[in-house]
Design a protein that fits this description.
The protein contains eight helices and eleven strands. With 272 residues, it is an alpha/beta fold. Helix 4 crosses helix 5. The longest helix has 20 residues. It is globular and about 55 Å long.
Amino acid sequence: MLAVDHVSMTYRRGGKNASLTRALHDVSLSAQAGEFITIIGPSGCGKTTLLYCMAGLNPGYEGRIEVDGEPVLGPAVGRSIVFQQSCLLPWRTVTKNVGYSLELLRSETKQEAAARVQAAIDLVGLRGFESYYPAQLSGGMQQRVNLARALATKPRLLLMDEPFASLDALTKELLQGELLRIMRDERCTTVFITHDIEEAVLLGDRVIVMSPRPGRIVHEYKVPFDRPRDREIAESAEFSDVVRQLRAVMREELERQPAETEPVGTATGRRA
């Protein structure tokens, strides 16, 4: 369903003597329909860059990315992204924020869109808050709205960029459990970026480990826990053992290859 084939990304910063910074190098991975992939790696390793390439928000990448056999050249219907920050429009209510993407698509009648919006609000547990504005909601509730907005479009590919990173521990655990429930019912293909190894193991069918910048895939781990899955699995010895293995892989990679801290060169007129 998703194919990432030898993808690299270099950022060009500045003007005439612009410096070049390699964010990704020769990244390849795939995901089957309904699979939940989690990607972990040290800060600055290119996890978010890779996700944005999949979303079509970084069109300057080298290599090839396909979704359902179609090349990713820009944003498209069927792909939704949940950003780390809630990114809600403060002057719109919960209902209006969730329905924003459907308004842009204009592919349904108003009645059909309203029904889909309400279903998404119900799915994330926000019934009763439809008329609230973002400023009236907690951080966790704002992220529920963000997720509902993404799910309202019925995406085949859901891309999530550390959506729970800024939340307190208890709210994070609650939303992890809610996401497990939602994914059990929706079964859309999901790529989830996180720096939290426990979160990656809890949510993922496979965990992808990336190296320090420039980001490369250095390890893939198939999570041995069946679905449906709940948070109680995180209390088991088997879960702790998987987390230890992945932490050891990340530590070894960091010690072997520190992240690049300097630009890789200067631009000479060629497109990065």
